[in-house]
Amino acid sequence: MTPYKKRSVFAKTGKRCDSLRFVQSGLLRMYVTMDDKEVTQWISAKGYFSTDLSSFIFETPSRWTPGASIDTEIYTTSKEDYNKSDI
Question: What is the CATH number of domain 2-79?
Answer without folding.
Answer: 2.60.120.10
